[in-house]
Amino acid sequence: MSSNKSTLPSSSSCSRRNASLWTLSISAVLLTAIWGMASFGFEEHHIDTNHRVSATQPRNNTISFSASHFPPSYWPKFKGQRYVTLLDGTWGTANVSSHDLATFDSMNPNFDPSTIKFSADMPVPSCVDSSPPGYMIPRGVYFFRRLFHFDLASAGARLQFQGCSFYCRVWVNGQEVGDHRAGGYVAFTLDIPPQASVDNEIFVLTDDRFNKTTAPMHTGGDFFHYGGIMRSVELHALPPPREGTSGSSLSLWPWRVYATPNSLETVNVTLHLTDRTYTGPIDTEIRVSFDMGPGVAYAPKLFSAVDGVASLGNMKVPNPRVWSTLDPQLHTLSVEMEGAVLVERFGLRMFDIDEDSLRIRLNGEIIKLLGWGHHTQWPDTGGSPTDEQLDEDILLLKAAGANFVRGAHYPQDARWLDRLDENGMVMWCETLGPNISAADTVDPYFLKYQAQQMNEMLDNAINHASIAIWAYFNEGPSGENASCPAYQMNTDLIKSRDTSRLVSYASSEAPPKDVCFPVVDIVSINGYPEWYDKPSAKTYWSAFASYYKALGKTFLISESGVGAIYEWQDNETAVPWTCAYQAKALVDIVEESISDFNVSGLALWHFFDFKSTDFVITGNWENNTHCDYLDNVYPPTCGYIDVNISTPFQKPGGQNCKGVIDFWRRKKPSYGEVAKRFTAITAKTTQHR
């Protein structure tokens, strides 16, 4: 093996079954070969759930809302008159041809959905660009269509997209109902006005091109931004007119109810109505119950709402059970109004900072947070994982002794947050927008959509017990004084809605360059000793921790790691990019993080190898940078990969290779080394070391 280029042995852990699956998955890149099969300037193709090109199939993409509805599996839950159904399944699809893409304006007010012809299908949710690492499908504009039968259409409805990327524009029955520019990874809603017909069509345009106007939150970063309708689409019935009225007075229904703990026995309850404009006394009974118990009925007009929001005050939880990392107990809170029932899930736990040690506490006890950053990425499904894939990652994290997950670098899938709640994982949740510029932080247009994204993230995640830290602006311009007001704006917005959590941002500015840190509760630093930076992990991180301790700030390592190629496990020397080098360096980082009392936590970067960014952001074209795969081996295994051991600034095979498992979730030697050290701390009832 030469010092600069690596020919890799076949791993004994790789079976030779299912090779055809990988061959077909690779064929996803052949979408570029059918570019140009246009109909009125639009090309059409079929992609199945494994994102393989195949022939167009007959479809029946009509869903009946009333006859059989399919409620979401994730929280919250809905009962009674609160009819909710998923519009997931097979949708018609088409896309703009490469010939017309450069001049196509996704925001054109004169665009007519009826001009699009559909002859192909695609599953929703899924990603339009789930190509393997080192391959890139050209970014573009896609169209989706679905029919649905809705007996309650005369009362109107609300669409909730859990994720539509990057830019999303929606029509119902040919009438535009709105668009979304605040990032493709956050849930949002659009209201449908009352319809005369029970048979309806939804039409969605998605645009996954980087653009400051249509997608201001997609600012780049070292990861692939997926496009399409990536997460579930929900259809919610809205309240009908009250009996005996002419239609101007609607029933008052609960949209969401938030339970934020202010002790280990009580929660502050905030009710959000489906009518977001309602201001005045709530003139209907509100029945509230915990854990499906008998509940309490509150008389009409006892509470008032302003712009659809009402505080129900502090409530004691009967038979309270505390959520912790070792015993993640959860409660439910139900609200019923005029026959509409909403059931939310929450946990009783308290996160704060110990005044003496400046360490993070959970339920009054100092805790050492140990875990990884975690992207929503899989080789075959991209940013639209199956339930089984989410379950596998949770099991791998638990087996590795993790009690902490940094959700990178965007709002998280509701199904993933549910699993973190249930498994006692402490969560860092942040908005999309890594590597924003100083110009972004003073741009009113950018800040408008950042505030919208932050509110939408809070709207959809605030009840999750696992979330301890809200964050924003990964590796942003926190070394610029002019940018600090934008940082303050985000912190103020969070604190105005939720005082039960801590606030941070991940900084790449070494002290004393970072000047915005006073606005957050926790100083979090991304740094790479023994990889990009030369000092030892102990020298590097102990200096940071001591510096911020002297300034009276809590300190957390939000990223630190080392790259390794999974197949490079048997090299004679532990040179950079080998698994042996990674294992040694990660042990150094972990042991320093555990032994240094001034370090509150560590999120290693990254849990698994993942697909890197494309040329639009970095200037480096990642297409055809994949390794040479061994024939007839599955999971895919590299026989040769182009890597220079003298520099860490590269993406071998189009991947960020800093994972302790590879993209296909095969363990590297570092996984076991880290797991031993994490488990020695996180398995203890007292984790204050």
Automatic annotation (TrEMBL):
<dbReference type="GO" id="GO:0005975">
    <property type="term" value="P:carbohydrate metabolic process"/>
</dbReference>
<dbReference type="Pfam" id="PF02837">
    <property type="entry name" value="Glyco_hydro_2_N"/>
</dbReference>
<dbReference type="GO" id="GO:0004553">
    <property type="term" value="F:hydrolase activity, hydrolyzing O-glycosyl compounds"/>
</dbReference>
<keyword id="KW-1133">Transmembrane helix</keyword>
<dbReference type="InterPro" id="IPR008979">
    <property type="entry name" value="Galactose-bd-like_sf"/>
</dbReference>
<keyword id="KW-0812">Transmembrane</keyword>
<comment type="similarity">
    <text>Belongs to the glycosyl hydrolase 2 family.</text>
</comment>
<dbReference type="InterPro" id="IPR051913">
    <property type="entry name" value="GH2_Domain-Containing"/>
</dbReference>
<dbReference type="InterPro" id="IPR006104">
    <property type="entry name" value="Glyco_hydro_2_N"/>
</dbReference>
<dbReference type="InterPro" id="IPR017853">
    <property type="entry name" value="GH"/>
</dbReference>
<dbReference type="InterPro" id="IPR006103">
    <property type="entry name" value="Glyco_hydro_2_cat"/>
</dbReference>
<feature type="domain" description="Glycosyl hydrolases family 2 sugar binding">
    <location>
        <begin position="128"/>
        <end position="239"/>
    </location>
</feature>
<dbReference type="Pfam" id="PF02836">
    <property type="entry name" value="Glyco_hydro_2_C"/>
</dbReference>
<dbReference type="InterPro" id="IPR006101">
    <property type="entry name" value="Glyco_hydro_2"/>
</dbReference>
<feature type="domain" description="Glycoside hydrolase family 2 catalytic">
    <location>
        <begin position="360"/>
        <end position="613"/>
    </location>
</feature>
<feature type="transmembrane region" description="Helical">
    <location>
        <begin position="21"/>
        <end position="42"/>
    </location>
</feature>
<keyword id="KW-0472">Membrane</keyword>
<protein>
    <recommendedName>
        <fullName>Beta-galactosidase</fullName>
    </recommendedName>
</protein>
